[in-house]
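Hi,

Apologies if this is the wrong queue. I'm a grad student, and the batch job for ABC transporter, ATP-binding protein from Enterococcus faecalis TX0630 produced an output file that my downstream script rejects. I'm not sure whether the problem is my script or the file. Here is the sequence I used:
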Amino acid sequence: MNVTPSFKKTTEKKSSFDALALREVYGIIYSAPEQELALADVFQTNQLTITRLSSSETFLPYLPLEENLFIASTIKERDRKVVLAEAFQVFQLEPALLGRSFTSFTTFEKIKMRIIQLLLSKTSTLVIDDIFSSLTIGQRQEILPQLKIAVQKRNKRLLFLTKDPQIIDSPYVHPLSLHALLN
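Support response: The file is valid. Your script probably expects a header line. Output copied below for reference.
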């Protein structure tokens, strides 16, 4: 019995979000809660598989730090040490941090570790919600080029949601209008 596969032809319009290139960092400035709701609607409507990092998330206290970093990852156990060493090198972190408690980290170290966790996740689209407000200008200047390198190495697409125009003005971030993304 011969079975011929059939393909459903779709005429769905590709969302402007899908057109964003992998290996790039984009930034959107939003100023009102309704704009954030509009973005959430875009993600839901387009059924985008994203991983989002906001200031309210923490690591699971009952898991070792290394397991927390790979919690949403599909990276094989045998490859984890190499991948983690590479991430620590990009973000200029000492491997000795793995032996410490997450609660003992500085704010800057916590943000870097949470970004590493985000980058190691299996999704290709990452959203970082305005988490840099607690960082100094020097720390922001340090982390943005590190993020650009890490996004390129991990083949991810990163979208910043921020109220701070200085982040969008960075040479490491491509400005993106909320209007362009919604249409």
